[in-house]
Amino acid sequence: MTDQPLFETVHPLVRRVLAQNPSPFTYTGTQTHIVGHGAVAVIDPGPAIAAHVEAILAATAGETIVAIVCTHTHRDHTPAAQPLAAATGAPVMGCAPIPARDGSGLEAGFDHSYAPDRVMGEGDTVSGPGWTLEAIATPGHTSNHLCFALPEAQALFTGDHVMGWSTSVVVPPDGDMGAYMASLDKLSPRDDLIYFPAHGEPVTKPKQLLRGMLGHRRQREAQIVRILGEGPRSVPEMVAQMYAGLDPRLEKAAGASVLAHLLDLDARGRVRATADIWSLAA
């Protein structure tokens, strides 16, 4: 931590503290955002790394944390909520917990110790002097994912729904490609000027990025349909054909993404599966 700045100001109302947990899924690490001054909110407190909790406390020294807000319960986002709440007395709020059913081995997995004092849903708010956070339900990356609008800055904290460096991984059974696409569409008409993601730099052209993300997913779907038009395939066979030169560490994630597309196509009656082999629906 000694070579890292304590925090970085990314907007007059927003500071961020970078957790030291870089990986193929977290990029440079999870970014915890601090909103406001004096009485502040902490968004996505991050992983249970003692030095990161200490950095958040140091960045807010002399201030009062009035809300610890969580976008979703992957273990690189919420475990620090408990020690931060214990140190400050601040309530934990935001996304709902997810039942203990994951086991994909991808990303960080879910934090099943997460126990919010307040579960927030669409349109719910928490506020402090000069700031308001409004929950926007954006399921897909996870079933419980929320974004948080900051109307005073025409900004949106997008968690892992929209990131500043890569598209989100959608891992069934909790991740749902149909819901993810609908949640991207949901953001399109909003007037946000900037997105603050949990990974990657702020997004200063959000509408352009949304168009690109939606287009990318539709291209992947069309690619899957085209491959299955050549004959039945397993998911690993499709991954090998679709992702030439892929980093081996990301093969499982690519397989999960392909499966998520297939399940969405299946729900729409366009493909079907026999055992682990997929084909176009008759």
From TrEMBL:
SUPFAM superfamilies: Metallo-hydrolase/oxidoreductase. Signal peptide: none annotated. Residues 28-199 form the Metallo-beta-lactamase domain. This is MBL fold metallo-hydrolase. It comes from Sphingomonas abietis.
